[in-house]
Structure formats: C-alpha cells, structure tokens
Write a structure and sequence with these properties.
The chain is mainly β. It has one domain. A hairpin with a 5-residue loop joins strand 7 and strand 8. A 4-stranded antiparallel sheet has the order 1-7-8-10, with no helix packed on it.
Length: 159
C-alpha cells in the first residue's frame, strides 16, 4: 500500500502493508484399487488388485459413493486381478493462502514485522481420496478432508 509521507501517524498505521497470495488448483489424485483378500496362493509380495468387470467411473460422484464399487470383484482362486494401476481419480483440490504483513521501524537497528497468515482462506472443502480396498467397509467412501481455514499471527523482531 502507498505510504503517507506527510502524515507520520497515518503512515505508521496505514502505510507499508504487504500482501501475498498463493493459489493451488489440482485435478484429483489418482489411486489404485486393492483387494483385501489374497486368492493367489502366492507369496505375499504386497497388495493384490481385484478384477475390473465394469466402468468404475459410471454414476454420480458423491462423498458416500465416489466411484462404481460394483465394477470390481475379487479375482478367482489362484489368479491375479486385472485392475490397472491408478484406475481412478479422487476429488479436485483448490486452495488459496493469503499473507498480510507490516514492517515497523523501531530504531535505526531494530524493527518488527507483524504478520498474519491465512491458510485455505476461502475455506474450500478439500476431500481426501476414498477408501480403495475392496472388502473394507469404507470402499468407495470419502471419510476425511484436509484442514479447514487456519489463521496464524506472528510478531518478529529484527535486530
């Protein structure tokens, strides 16, 4: 903001403010569906993927039913599933952070910075990926989110 050079009190109070903004807009994170049952009779070399038998992206996307859960089924005995990696995408992520700061000169060598930081200033709900393990109760359900708006205030002394 502009300075008020002719009015010392107004300049001290209103002049010299700085503002900064950071925006992040991302498409949804990809994720892989896993099976809770290991029918392969093979060594446990990690997670097992189910068979993909339909379109997992059909239907509306809601928090309680993010993808078509009936598009997956456990693989037959002694076989591996055919579901590909990163077959689905979670919800989009939108975030705006804002910083507002003001520097005050105390003496020739000492100054302070008053700073307010606002994370997720628009308070947009950014949901995590849904449960993606076939056979679990939360399969296809989004049950968590990133933090809501957070504000922090700081005073820094520089000497």
């Amino acid at each position: 903001m502009p300075g008020f050079s002719q009015h010392h009190f107004a300049h001290t109070l209103l002049g010299g403010w700085q503002i900064g903004a950071l925006s992040i807009l991302q498409s949804g994170q990809t994720f892989t569906v896993f099976d809770s049952v290991n029918n392969t009779n093979a060594f446990p070399a990690g997670t097992v993927r189910p068979n993909l038998i339909g379109d997992p992206n059909s239907g509306p996307q809601t928090l309680t039913h993010w993808f078509n859960t009936v598009a997956f089924q456990s693989a037959a005995l002694y076989t591996f599933g055919n579901s590909p990696r990163s077959v689905l995408r979670g919800p989009a992520w939108k975030n705006v952070d804002l910083t507002l700061s003001k520097n005050f000169k105390l003496t020739e060598r000492w100054s302070t910075e008053f700073r307010g930081e606002f994370f997720n200033v628009l308070n947009h709900a950014n949901f995590d990926i849904p449960g993606h393990t076939l056979g679990n109760a939360d399969f296809g359900v989004i049950s968590s989110a990133e933090p809501a708006r957070t504000v922090q205030v700081a005073l820094r002394i520089v000497f």
